[in-house]
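Obj.: predict assembly geometry.
Materials: sequence records (below).
Method: joint structure prediction, all chains together.
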Amino acid sequence: MGSVRNILFVMCDQLRADTLGCMGHPTIKTPYIDALARRGVRFTRAYCQAPVCGPSRMSFYTGRYMTSHGAHYNDVPLRADEWTMGDYLRPLGLRVGLVGKTHFAMDREGFARLGLDHQTPAGKLAAECGFEGWERDDGLHPDQAARRDLAYNVYLRAQGYEGDNPWHSAANSAAGPNGEVLSGWEMRHANLPARVDKAHSETAYMTDRAMAMIAALGDTPWLLHLSYIKPHWPYMAPAPYHALYQAADLPPANRSDAERAAPHPVVGAFMQHDESQAFARDEVRERVLPTYMGLVTEIDDHIGRLMRFLEQQGRLGDTLLVFTSDHGDYLGDHWLGEKELFHEESARIPLIIVDPDPAADSARGSECDALVESLDLIPTFLEVLGGNPEHQRLEGRSLLPFLHGASAAGWRDAAFSELDYAWRRARLILERTPSEARAVMIRTARWKYVSYDGFPPQLFDLEADLLEQQDLGQAPEHASLRAELEARIADWARHRKLRLTMSDDIIARRTDTARQRGILFGQW
Amino acid sequence: MGSVRNILFVMCDQLRADTLGCMGHPTIKTPYIDALARRGVRFTRAYCQAPVCGPSRMSFYTGRYMTSHGAHYNDVPLRADEWTMGDYLRPLGLRVGLVGKTHFAMDREGFARLGLDHQTPAGKLAAECGFEGWERDDGLHPDQAARRDLAYNVYLRAQGYEGDNPWHSAANSAAGPNGEVLSGWEMRHANLPARVDKAHSETAYMTDRAMAMIAALGDTPWLLHLSYIKPHWPYMAPAPYHALYQAADLPPANRSDAERAAPHPVVGAFMQHDESQAFARDEVRERVLPTYMGLVTEIDDHIGRLMRFLEQQGRLGDTLLVFTSDHGDYLGDHWLGEKELFHEESARIPLIIVDPDPAADSARGSECDALVESLDLIPTFLEVLGGNPEHQRLEGRSLLPFLHGASAAGWRDAAFSELDYAWRRARLILERTPSEARAVMIRTARWKYVSYDGFPPQLFDLEADLLEQQDLGQAPEHASLRAELEARIADWARHRKLRLTMSDDIIARRTDTARQRGILFGQW
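Observations (raw structure tokens):
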């Protein structure tokens, strides 16, 4: 057992892995996050299990692949009997709390079928993705659905911001020349400052709430999932973050005429989405990306504030720190907006972990290029805290060896990610039924292969073509490689952890024991 | 809507598809079951989803493949939120009751996690596989675990049979020359009559109980799952059934020296099991099989009694009748005992369905060779009763077209079955971990292919070699066929119904609707 008692699990939403100073971005300023990287390990090949908020998060929270936990998209309820982070960590004595976004949807039908009372302690937890909801806020509150009594709205009004939904009118809108509200939902306003003071932004507020939880818990061990909505759209930042960066600070877009001329059918359908059409215009990138970067630097400032607070509280020495994101953001690369598909801009995630234990000293500041998946976090937490990282429901593996500068024998040689685009216009464009809109990505040390239902595959050579500009999905010389990767996906699909109610250990103890139990078959 | 209001769903345990007169057995007498076949449709290529009681039954009861419902073996709990037959049928107004065996194990851990009270009505049902337990009896009661207050034990004592466990000492044992109890657990006693009168046997008792439930429900619509333990071992029949058949009545064993000399590694390991070693001896077959056949004829007599009762109750005209089994029994064929593997003797099941509706008149007495799976039953029941046979959890398809003599457009061209032998000595012999002991069978119109984890496949040409004597799993000329069948299994594995909490219909309604909900991404 090391010195870790607490876990601060920070997630951003839609933060691209490459949009941090420590991950090689040429212009962005993220000094506090870079400082985390110097104190810990930076994973350069970490992938989310599905490049969409809901399913990606359910993989983080359950430790299982998308088609294992079954919540394939935003707002798809998680089955009532899927275990989540808290189910693993509470038995180890931690309070497991949430501040921010989970995108969890409760399985109301499943609860009703079981006659479950979600006012009981167990029911309340199961209804909140297994977290104590210190501050639950899924982050998007369009006027037509926003709650006036949303905690953040109440807070903003207490600070003097008016209206039913200051989340929109103050934190995610700018002021026009005549004082009119210019909505952040419209990207042409992204260069303007939000109508909220930086001290009252969503990022600031959630950081405040995280500190309040940490202070309130004192010496009780905890996991705090601090889950920022930003830099997710609406792309709107408070001053001065709206104006920190200019078009000249942007790396060039990763896109080519060839990509646009002959796209893969599914990619081509996604290129027809509004967000892709918008980000295909340089004007949009140049208006939005500086603000996207500003929102990241704003988060960075609050990470600095949070670290100072942890130090004051005496928690730096006994708290494991995780900094990550649920997925990336195309931001116009490959002529795409948003996420969902599997290019590095979308499927790769930032992941920095700081283990305060002296055993981790030799690895501080190192980078790790092992193929890592978001579902490795729960096993990591369990191993750090002395639990069982090999629980029969968990499909990942503990990262602790990497945190301690050791090698991990037999580490996976491929990472997987999944897509179900049933909910997107691309499906209608492609005339697929809701059950026919899936894809699986496998990423090995050198190759990325995407197997689509009903369409040809994609193949990229990430050694020769890290920008993924050359799709080898039809290249005759790679036919046997594609067959091999397809077989790897098949093997993976057949060996998911779906036998959840009995562990291998129990099976091993029961093997060939019928006779001892008096069940005497086959006896003459 | 047809005339069906009730469903009598009769299952035998370990009844081979070929051990019925109407299925071509040369000597057995099953006149009442044959009469059902004349009134309904006999399915000649019906397969169970796993040739082991527990997982096969959970597939019948959930309408899902073994690795979808996750209960891979006997006594593996079914996840608390898997739906079962009653969840689909109760909303249609049926009482859904059980008399006999389910082999269901409750997910106690899952229930505890949710804080579920299984004394509530919903909890009680979920704890009993969704059935009202009019008489639950899983059928095997070794002395060391038997309950004195088991209903059948109480009943037997009331009839004058003595002891704590007359299930064993009376119903499943014979009397020796000096009055000693000769246990039915030992197959050498199989030729002797059970110490129970035929009026008090398990089969007789469960039939009595079924009739009591039907009488008690009167005109309330019902599904009754009458689930006999026989002809499952202990192979012990009451007089006169113990002596109806002799060795001369047995078909020859389906086994060859070649099979024994060079078995597939997994089959070879199963051949080392006690039951296989025993049944490899002609003496054992000749002692056991006549009694096995007698137990089937005993069931047949009670099917006749039950049909007369239904007629008296006026229920023949509004009750759908299903007669099937959870799997077969090798009985020494292929040098194997028991079941689990995929030869026709094990994986194929008898299936006869009688639809009383006049729409079914043209199909009466017909045989159907479509590839049918046990998970087709729930969709059939739903269609017959006017429910939704395409519920997103259900992996089967309604058989109603076949019952009405129609063709079913686009019917499946392959059936699947699964094996997890983690619990068996074969795994230890083969030195596999509990997660490495799986296989999947695909059966097409012509071929049967079995894909094993860690071992070569098996392939049989069922047109040329219906007895499955010639394993083409290594035949060079079939390499591309094997690759094709392996790809079919991969496709099947990737497209299991695991997105359980949202239907395709809801997805279709929600597709591309973010804008209507005020979520305005990608807008300039």
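Conclusions so far: The two ends of chain B are 53 Å apart (CA to CA).
To do: check interface contacts against the pulldown list.
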